[in-house]
Amino acid sequence: MAVDFYVPSNVPGPSGGTNYNSAVARGLRARGVPVVVHPVAGAWPRPSPWEGPGGGGVAVVDGLIGSACPEAIARAGAGGARVHVLVHMALPSDPAWSDRERAGVREREARALRAAAGVITTSHWSAADLHRRYGLAGVEVISPGVEPAPVARGSFPPRILCLGALTPAKNQLTLLRALKMIQDLPWQAHLVGSHDHDPAYAARVRAEAATMAPQRVRVPGPQEGEELTLTWQGTDLLVLCSATETFGLVVTEALARGVPALVSQGTGAEEALGSRPLAGGAVDGRDPGAIAASLRQWLTRRSLRRDWREAALIRRTALPTWGEAADRWRALLGDPGAGARGA
Fold this sequence. Notes:
By secondary structure, the protein is an alpha/beta fold. It has two domains: 3-145 and 321-334, 3-Layer(aba) Sandwich (Rossmann fold), CATH 3.40.50.2000; 159-316, Glycogen Phosphorylase B (Rossmann fold). Helix content is 40%, strand content 16%. The protein has 13 helices and twelve strands. A six-stranded parallel sheet has the order 2-1-3-4-5-6, with helices on both faces. Strands 9-8-7-10-11-12 form a six-stranded parallel sheet, with helices on both faces. Helix 1 packs across helix 13 (322-334), helix 3 packs parallel to helix 4 and helix 6 (172-180) runs parallel beside helix 7. 48% of the residues are buried.
């Protein structure tokens, strides 16, 4: 069985979605499944010219492409291809769309997902969201895995990390406004991620960060490899106040290092945080006052910091692996009946 995997070529820098795609492709190959990755040029997730998967084999299409091209998905299915759309995030949930654009995005995504042979997403929260939006049944959930990582040592003053592209969806401006409310306390914050997804928003984030002391807030851009490893080593708390989040791979990456997380209520990041003992907390990610209050408690209550850290270290030992995720993918793609759609 060969699998054609179509991914967007216009995503600048690393992201949870690109990391997931790469890990799945590696895992399938390690299990003897030939995978051909096809970078697809376009202004994704905006509709762009694309002929769609060719032939009659098995294809996986990243949702940034597939949800923007319902005609291509339907055409491939009619030609005998078994096309699975991998939804990292329901496209209409991105706050960057205007109201007029969002209606068209929703209509295209609904047609694309109904035309697919299967839909896969990365959390149970996301599967429920797709059912609520489009009435889709049978959405497969294959959560991300993690790579083994050393326990973070932390820093003094405590380091807060926000890891993700600088975009309205990741909502760094709200975090910065929250941090301004707790400048009487010792802390440092690193906002790590690409500035190229939404350059105008990234410029606003940099301008807001510049109103605080440079030793307090750093906005270094994207990091990978040893540079990112060093950042994780000095991190004490991950903060993810996303406006929307399907799962939050970065949360499990934090827990793999014994780092607790503060995440947005009502998003898939709560699922990534796990069950009790809770390795962190959840607040209204749109409310800088709520974020500031939670951070103030974490910074001033030694017992809370100890409890979150101990829970993260416990959770670290029970996280799913990428091997387990690849096994799920192999079983799904190898079963001709898997992923049948229902409404």
